[in-house]
Design brief:
The protein is an all-alpha fold. Among the domains are: 13-135, Serine Threonine Protein Phosphatase 5, Tetratricopeptide repeat; 187-268, Tetratricopeptide repeat domain (Serine Threonine Protein Phosphatase 5, Tetratricopeptide repeat). It is 80% helix and 2% strand. The protein is built from 25 helices and 2 strands. It has helices at residues 2-12, 15-32, 36-52, 56-72, 76-93, 98-114, 118-135, 142-157, 161-181, 189-205, 208-225, 230-246, 250-268, 273-288, 292-306, 313-329, 333-349, 354-370, 374-391, 397-412, 416-429, 447-463, 470-492, 502-522, 525-544; strands at residues 431-436, 439-444. It has a two-stranded antiparallel sheet. A hairpin with a 2-residue loop joins strand 1 (431-436) and strand 2 (439-444). The longest helix is centred in the C-terminal third of the chain and has 23 residues, at 470-492. It is elongated. The protein starts with a helix and ends with a helix.
Length: 545
């Protein structure tokens, strides 16, 4: 009955108003399907209609939606210009309406986020939150939930994880209240969005198993809803693929990333910002998997599409970073350094936040070390370390890389005691304890990093030869033995044991081989027995898998 009543109401509306309602229905449908380019013409027609009717409020609301289409298509400057104009009209003609101001500020915050102006985004989102609270009595309104969600996502990207978790918790609680108050089914994309972003958050924090759980939940929810296409499914596949890749299941991770890229291509086209970002990430994953020709093909595709387009300048820094990664993998360290420096230069040009600058600056330091340029290495090491600690923290990959490089430098210069101290601290930084039901557990952020540290320590002990100190030698052998056991435990507890990468198998085999050499050097029957026991066990484990 309601359906027929609505049709009759539309039919008997004045023709002028009817001319704005028809394109509104079309625009709503197209935006719901993610067809933002196709939604622009009916939105422009609506805007013109409302201007003719002198309906300023509806004209501004339509302009806001037009701006949303623009930034979703990554035409950021066009979207920003429309929002600035809408804000001016709201101030002049509607006495700065709080509801409209909140909507405008929310979109302006998202544009700042896309420009990687994180501090600016947080500031604008907080202003949007204040305006929203001035308009609505109930905090469980969808607009406030969206702002809290955007704040949580921004804090995740800049590594302020406590604030991110606080806001995600608020989002989840407010979302549940909102859905229950409106008798809505909680099997909804809004809850999928929370799972995707929690997956990204835990990935960034280094809690890979937690990240994997959130990624699986997001995909499961979408499959239950029959939504195996579009934005959400692509985002879930991309986030989950990133996690399983880092957990060592390279083949499956790459498959998920390719699926995500195909969906984005259908949704947005190859010349969209989102496609290019995902394309770069896939290229980087190929490089990490030593498939350098595929990595280069993808990054070449990026430059063919992006060309000299200034709109894509702000993300081109990452393409140069990936070119650096490819050349590092191929052993072309001079070329890699050139690309990394170009990446840093672009980041400074576009004033990109230090969260992105820190890992690429670390790559520059690494290439100085590989090229034997110790002067440049030592000159920039400390400032880069401070940047990494401030922006990424001591559990980050960049912190690990810098400290292990410094440990190698100390080893090469014969400062073995200092090197041991640095490397043992690096092992500690990669793990931390947490309590569950009163029991203490040790969590390893990245098992592959842990194994690399073990190998490096064993190499140090092979080099550090103080035969006159029998006690020290025995201690070194015993520590080497405990490290081998630790690596074995890591592998035994590794997720997806049948699929983890060849790299992990190689580390374990290599670590065992090093220990055999250490034990043989001591020529002690007890040590020899233990070393061959571990060796045979590792062979059996690898053959079994």
């Amino acid at each position: 009955m309601l359906k027929y009543l609505l049709i009759s109401m539309i039919f008997f509306l004045p023709s002028e108003k009817n001319e704005t309602i028809k394109p509104k229905i079309t625009a709503d449908s197209l935006m719901a399907l993610g067809k933002y380019e196709e939604a622009i013409p009916p939105l422009k027609k609506m805007y013109s209609g409302y201007i003719e009717l002198s309906d300023t409020k509806e004209a501004i609301m339509t302009a806001i939606r037009l701006a949303e289409c623009k930034w979703r298509l990554y035409r950021i400057e066009e979207g920003d210009s429309i929002l600035n104009y809408a804000s001016k009209i709201n101030s002049e003609k509607l006495n700065n309406d709080n509801y409209i101001a909140s909507l405008i500020l929310t979109h302006q915050g998202t544009i700042k986020l896309l420009k990687m102006d994180y501090d600016g985004a947080i500031d604008v989102y907080n202003k949007a939150l204040i305006r929203n609270q001035l308009h609505f009595d109930d905090s469980s309104n969808q607009y406030q939930i969206n702002i809290l969600f955007n704040l949580a996502s921004t804090y995740t990207q800049i590594g302020v994880y406590d604030s991110a978790i606080h806001h995600y918790t608020n989002v989840y609680e407010e979302q549940l209240k909102y859905f229950k108050a409106n008798a809505r089914d909680t099997l909804h994309v809004d809850f999928v969005d929370i799972q995707i972003n929690l997956c990204i958050l835990e990935y960034n924090r280094g809690f890979l198993r937690r990240a994997k759980t959130h990624g699986q939940k997001a995909i499961m929810l979408l499959e239950q809803m029959g939504r195996q296409d579009g934005d959400y499914y692509a985002d879930a596949l991309s986030a989950y693929g990133r996690v399983v890749f880092l957990l060592g299941n390279y083949k499956y991770g790459l498959k998920l990333k390719r699926q995500a890229l195909d969906i984005i291509k259908l949704q947005y086209g190859k010349e969209s910002w989102k496609y290019l970002v995902e394309l770069m990430e896939l290229s980087d994953h190929y490089a990490k998997n030593k498939q350098f020709h595929l990595a280069r093909n993808r990054i070449d595709e990026f430059f063919q599409i992006a060309g000299q387009n200034e709109n894509f300048g702000v993300i081109t820094f990452n393409a140069y970073n990936i070119l650096g990664n490819i050349n590092t993998g191929l052993g072309n360290h001079s070329e890699a350094l050139k690309y990394y420096k170009e990446s840093v230069s672009l980041m400074r040009k576009y004033k990109i936040d230090g969260t992105h600058l820190a890992p690429i600056s670390t790559n520059v330091i690494q290439e100085y070390f590989e090229l034997g340029d110790k002067k440049s290495f030592l000159k920039d090491y400390k400032t880069t370390l401070i940047l990494v600690e401030e922006k990424l923290g001591r559990h980050s990959d960049s912190w690990y890389t810098l400290k292990t490089l410094y440990g190698k430098h100390l080893t090469e210069t014969g400062k073995y005691a200092e090197a041991e101290k640095v490397l043992l601290k690096t092992l500690q930084d990669n793990s931390f304890d947490y309590n569950i039901s009163g029991k203490k557990y040790r969590y390893y952020q990245n098992p592959i990093k842990q194994l690399k540290s073990i190998i490096q320590l064993i190499d140090l002990y092979k080099t550090w030869n103080e035969e006159d100190n029998e006690k020290l030698i025995i201690h070194q052998f015993q520590l080497g033995d405990s490290l081998i056991q630790q690596s074995r435990c890591l592998i035994n507890n590794y997720e997806d044991q049948l699929n983890f990468s060849e790299e992990v198998r190689t580390f374990y085999s290599e670590a065992t081989s090093h220990n055999i050499q250490l034990y043989e050097k001591k020529k002690d029957d007890h040590f020899l027995y233990q070393s061959f026991y571990f060796s045979e066990q590792s062979k059996a484990y690898i053959l079994f898998n």
